[in-house]
Design brief:
Number of strands: 4
Distance between the termini: 34 Å
Radius of gyration: 15 Å
Number of domains: 1
């Protein structure tokens, strides 16, 4: 149960950050904000290495193993991308898309297309 609560907490934090950035004063009209993380939406999990090099999260106790998984396990990494909703629309033709069973990215993209 704690594992599920930790996962949900991480997702809620990311959603709150998306909303906070989208609500910033002075933002462009029809701006949509989505979080992208290595391992999802066409970004290979090895992208963690570049994020770790730029952000140095080891200083706060987050490490990366050789297969690009973070420790502690419930850590979240990624970027927030803000812009016109069309920038978030992409084709599902990345190598791992055919193996995806959730299509969560489609739900997220549909949500910002309605902005």
């Amino acid at each position: 149960m704690l594992d599920a609560a930790a996962s949900e907490s991480a997702e809620l934090l990311v959603a709150a950050l998306e909303r906070r950035l989208a609500a910033r004063p002075g933002g462009r009209a029809r701006s949509a904000v989505l979080a992208y993380s290595p391992g999802y939406c066409g970004w290979h999990v090895s992208g963690q290495r570049a994020l770790f090099a730029a952000l140095a999260p080891e200083e706060i106790g987050i490490t990366l193993n050789s297969s690009c998984l973070m420790h502690p396990l419930k850590s979240v990494s990624g970027v927030l991308v803000a812009g016109h909703p069309d920038i978030h629309d992409f084709d599902d033709d990345f190598p791992f898309c055919s193996e995806c069973s959730t299509r969560d990215c489609r739900v997220r993209i549909a949500r910002v297309q309605e902005v």
